[in-house]
Amino acid sequence: MFKQGVGWLLASALTGGALLAGADESANIVGTLDGDKRAWFVLRQSDDSNATFMDVGDQRQVEVTGFVDPLEWDAQEALVLSFVLEGDELVSAKVMQLIGPTAIPPLYTSEGGNIHVSLNHVEQQGRELHLQGKIHGVLALQHDAETPPSISEGIDIRVNFELVAQRVEF
Length: 170
Prior knowledge:
Mean pLDDT: 87
Strand content: over 45%
């Protein structure tokens, strides 16, 4: 038992702690992006998660970043979801698919695009918010911060998601 634990810790140290970040290796967001099969992972390390929510008045604001690698917090090609809920009803949704390692254009965005987001299941249990739903439509390409997104250069997105967001408390 001790040797296995040391081996696991050594492997984690050699990979820069990557093994610690990917506790659950099943994809939380799956589907197609521009016709190609894709999967994104919600990563969690202890109380730190890239799926969070905050209570703001009567609303819950949910922020999720899905990473393409189940073990690395690398934003390259990440899928970013932002939802606002009132009760269990979706009030607004934004979706971005990052092209580079940051949320700075160029990127694909629902702003200027045409997407539909539906929630099939919303359930809060203490500090955890369970969400299940679908996203489909077209994300518009935004080349730079000065130009509006172009739906004519957009990509088709069709994904299902099932995830748990953690409450952010200050």
